[in-house]
Amino acid sequence: MFSNTLRATFIALTSLAIAVSASPSLSLKVSGVESVNNVENFKVKTTITNTGAETVKVLNDPRGALSKMPTDTFTITNTKGDKPSFSGIKVKYVPSTAAAAGSFTVLAPGQSVEVEHSLAEAYNFTAPGEGAYDITANNLFYVVDESSNIVPVYAQHDSNAHKAKLSGRLATPRPNSTLAKRASFVSCSSTRQTQLNTAASSAQSYAALALSYLNSHTSSTSRFTTWFGTYTSAHHDTVTSHFSNISGGSYSSFTYDCTCTDSGTYAYVYPGTYGTIYLCGAFWNAPNTGTDSKAGTLIHEASHFTRNGGTQDYVYGQSGDPAVHNVENFKVKTIITNTGNETLKVLNDPRGTLSNMPTNTFNITNEQGDQPSFRGIKIKYVPTNAAKSGGYTILAPGQSVEVEHTLSDAYDFATSGQGSYEIGVSNLFHIIDSFSKIVPMYAKLESQVHRAKLSGKLSVPRPTNRFARRTNFVGCSSARQTQISAAASAAQSYAASALTYLQSHTSTTKRFTTWFGAYTANHHEVVVSHFNLMNSGHYSSFTYDCTCTDSNLYAYVYADTYGTIYLCGSFWNAPNTGTNSKAGTLIHESSHFTENGGTEDFEYGLDNSMSLAISNSDQAILNADSHEYFAENNPALS
Ligand SMILES: *[C@@H]1O[C@H](CO)[C@@H](O)[C@H](O)[C@H]1NC(C)=O
Ligand SMILES: *[C@@H]1O[C@H](CO)[C@@H](O)[C@H](O)[C@H]1NC(C)=O
Ligand SMILES: *[C@@H]1O[C@H](CO)[C@@H](O)[C@H](O)[C@H]1NC(C)=O
Ligand SMILES: *[C@@H]1O[C@H](CO)[C@@H](O)[C@H](O)[C@H]1NC(C)=O
Ligand SMILES: CC(=O)N[C@H]1CO[C@H](CO)[C@@H](O)[C@@H]1O
């Protein structure tokens, strides 16, 4: 796919609001024996290697592969897709405290560290049974950078999953504590016992106060939304039930085990073992009350007990994510760097990070897995034409380009709510090679996701244009109005004849398979429904807006604004009918309207659309250009 001259070239892409100079990079490998008799012998080794150019400090996060603690570090699946049940521990851990305590592993460039994990301590294989398992490790690590910021780094998996066959015993009992089970304290000095008694009493008050607050505030409050996100009565009930259970227990009757000495960790519990809390090094340095205090830690740990609701640790600590107040200030910057040794021409694809048009460029998810709704635009764009008309960015070796994106132009956060969001981005670019061919190039992501916490206003109205809403033409000269009328009439014929063709060809035909892939009755029905809807609209009654001047774009729409099409520079140079014509562009754009089926732009261009039909017909039947080319039918296929 790549020409020889570009084989060694790649682009680095960062999606960051704060620039980070170094770009840490790690690899991760899971290895071990391939055949294991009895689960207590089921051990795997993780190898973490610094594949970057600078020394890194990697936090010994208890959830991760650098720590031996029996947390849920691995994804283990047998051939049927079944997983062992997790029987290990949940830990209270504050990354910034651990960083300050020096609880990290220093790796020079090229250096590796190996950690052995005993799977029997964390997993019970009884239900899935004997057999072959695939094992992969959580690849999220946290690196302490030069400014002491803690930044996430996703390690590259160095191999496919480790495969091992398990037979014999499938679960082992948890090792007994060396001391009596009934004691309230295990290996705690009398000073520590005193501290624990104080903390237990404060934790009991915390739980009682939290419960009474929740019982008396049954609507949105800033205390609730700050920690648990948008107020819903179901979420309120869940949190209230947790505190009700925590408060109903008696901290003074718990068992506290002081044998853990890890200075980066506060405490841990086995969720199924109600009432036993293991305290570690960081606990003893914490204040009795306040942020990440001893009492707070006891609340955190008690919430993990299955009997209390069994919370998970999705995010540790309360700082870290930059705060954004009001969505119109929610901006991210992408930095694209040519890290190769040859000059590159990178297409300014409107779907990608080199363009700040409000297309669906980002993958934005909050902690509940909710995404904001996309409210931006969908565009008609032909890469080959953009390449010819200079619609690309030239990057010399080492050169970077920064593009700022205003997320509120493209996304509405009203339903996903306030809270922390992860923002990811596609690393696919298209470059023009020395033979003027357009080839895909995947950038190396310097940081996988950017995180930010959003509060305040969650959506902004779309900019309304200055012209009357009712007119058919906005900012169109009379010459252009004439061209549009001709195109609208041709588009109407395209839609009608596409529909007639589809209704009279209910089996496989060359024309169908070329654009939509293998014929199935279901796929045929989907495409018929799109053209049926397009045909029943009236292109002559649409609103056409001529204010877009970008010469590399044909047209765009807001999918939820039926009947308004924005026409751009390339549109005026297109023929009235035929491939990538004015009429075809109107077919493309109208297929995007939600009312017409809401197609996407999975692929742009003739060749790519034909390839999509072969490689992914499920996408082809929802791809706008596939509809346009089917309707244009040029050259004619039967
Ligand atoms: C392992 O899980 C099974 C249920 O699948 C349970 O009956 C058994 O007690 C568990 N074993 C241990 C040691 O926890
Ligand atoms: C743990 O304690 C139980 C009963 O108290 C005993 O039967 C068992 O043998 C002990 N296990 C170990 C590994 O010492
Ligand atoms: C670019 O790097 C590759 C290998 O890394 C090398 O073969 C090639 O000669 C270099 N090209 C230039 C122009 O320096
Ligand atoms: C979007 O991000 C979420 C969470 O970060 C991830 O699970 C999902 O795979 C991503 N989707 C795409 C299409 O990249
Ligand atoms: C997980 C959970 O919610 N456990 C218990 C909490 O307490 C109530 C009664 O107070 C129980 O019904 C729940 O099972």
Automatic annotation (TrEMBL):
<feature type="domain" description="Lysine-specific metallo-endopeptidase">
    <location>
        <begin position="500"/>
        <end position="632"/>
    </location>
</feature>
<dbReference type="GO" id="GO:0046872">
    <property type="term" value="F:metal ion binding"/>
</dbReference>
<dbReference type="InterPro" id="IPR024079">
    <property type="entry name" value="MetalloPept_cat_dom_sf"/>
</dbReference>
<comment type="similarity">
    <text>Belongs to the peptidase M35 family.</text>
</comment>
<feature type="domain" description="Lysine-specific metallo-endopeptidase">
    <location>
        <begin position="212"/>
        <end position="328"/>
    </location>
</feature>
<feature type="signal peptide">
    <location>
        <begin position="1"/>
        <end position="22"/>
    </location>
</feature>
<dbReference type="Pfam" id="PF14521">
    <property type="entry name" value="Aspzincin_M35"/>
</dbReference>
<dbReference type="InterPro" id="IPR050414">
    <property type="entry name" value="Fungal_M35_metalloproteases"/>
</dbReference>
<dbReference type="InterPro" id="IPR029463">
    <property type="entry name" value="Lys_MEP"/>
</dbReference>
<keyword id="KW-0378">Hydrolase</keyword>
<dbReference type="GO" id="GO:0004222">
    <property type="term" value="F:metalloendopeptidase activity"/>
</dbReference>
<keyword id="KW-0732">Signal</keyword>
<keyword id="KW-0862">Zinc</keyword>
<dbReference type="GO" id="GO:0006508">
    <property type="term" value="P:proteolysis"/>
</dbReference>
<keyword id="KW-0482">Metalloprotease</keyword>
<keyword id="KW-0645">Protease</keyword>
<keyword id="KW-0479">Metal-binding</keyword>
<protein>
    <recommendedName>
        <fullName>Lysine-specific metallo-endopeptidase domain-containing protein</fullName>
    </recommendedName>
</protein>
